Amino acid sequence: MKITNIIPYPINVGSGSQLIVKIETDSGLYGWGASGLSGRELAVVGAIEHYKPLLIGKNPMQIGAIWQDLYRGQYFEGGRVLTAAISAIDIALYDLKGKALDVPVYELLGGKQRDFVPCFASVRFSSLDELMEHSKKMVKNGWDMLRLAPAEFETLGNTNPYKFEPRESIAIIADWVTALRKEVGTKITIGIDYHTRLTIPETYSFIKRMPEGTLDFIEEPIRDENPGAYKELRKLINVPFAIGEEFSSKWQFLPFLEENITQYARIDVCNVGGITEAMKVASLAESHYIDLMPHNPLGPICTAATIHLAAACPNFSWLEEVNTGAHVTTNDPKFYPKQPKLDGPRYPVSDIPGLGVEVDEEFVRQQEFKQVEIPRLRRNDGSFTNW
After folding, report:
1. Given phi > 0 = left and psi -120 to 50 = alpha, else beta, which region is 32?
2. What CATH code would you report for 3-104?
3. Domain spanning 107-353, CATH class
4. Residue 374 gets which letter from DSSP?
5. Per-residue three-class SS string for 131-160
6. CA 213 to CA 224: how far, in whole Å?
7. Full-model pTM
8. Which of 19, 83, 200, 248 lies 20 to 30 Å from 69 when distance is taken between CA atoms?
9. Residues spanned by CATH 3.30.390.10 within the chain?
10. Which pLDDT tens digit goes with each residue over 37-70?
11. First and final CA of the chain: distance in angstroms?
């Protein structure tokens, strides 16, 4: 069996954008993969076009060798654009190989270690009433873990939706999260994603404004380029960290795992280098008693690939789920007629060969792709801040 074609499809699903990739073979079998570099899909398409002539004619069953060839086969190794492209290719190869051997992907990873994958509900909110309404609905529907999505611009009552002032935000959100904890009680796990919008002292102030035990973790309060900054923040607060959704290799994860800087590994299988690299990160994390808490707002292919990863790993906590009615929609069935289906707050581990996802390729071809840019946030003085 030989690879005959690689087709990237940038698509718009809901209000966002995705990049899915199809690998075809001379046997008629094919596999689907996805990239995770949201908002820069065309850059990843360019990388895939560079890789395409290297892959045509290759044996798709040699996934590990192909990964090494793609990663090391240029002077400028790695980087988020290249590993996002490698991720999509790698995931598609696993899908293809599973279909060829008539087994689900987790069987290629050592077999399943769990029958279902627990999820957390990602909850967006723009007011205290909305936070309470969404959260109580999730708890009523059986969700016992809530991850509060980034504090939105509207929380400050701004007329300008692209303005964000960190000190104003933490004062309001600390009160709201404290109220939420009182409302839902102690049995519910609560975390919050501040989306790298804070500094070290701002994060300290945010945590200290809430009673101990209010938050079970905080996700990426500051940027992650400098592990030393997180080490200093670790000394100041006692709330666990969840870090890693932007990491593009095991090497980027390494200091955060080896030095126990993070307590949850927010791995994104569509950014880190695919299933091949994700399994290596999982092993590194296991050796430090750190659970995976995968990043997953990117669509059903990412969801399916992460379910198989989670099924095959012992060190797993929760999978992110955004399609709950309290966040966004990324799983439009017009694009994905076959995809994983939630059973309450969890995904059953399927025995369908490959990933268990199918794409309506004809429908995809009919769509016109429009680039989607993330918001640009400014502070009160007009300077930029992180989204």
Report:
1. beta
2. 3.30.390.10
3. alpha beta
4. P
5. HHHHHHHHHHCCCCEEEECCCCHHHHCCCC
6. 25
7. 0.95
8. 19
9. 3-104
10. 998 999 999 999 999 999 999 999 999 999 999 9
11. 45
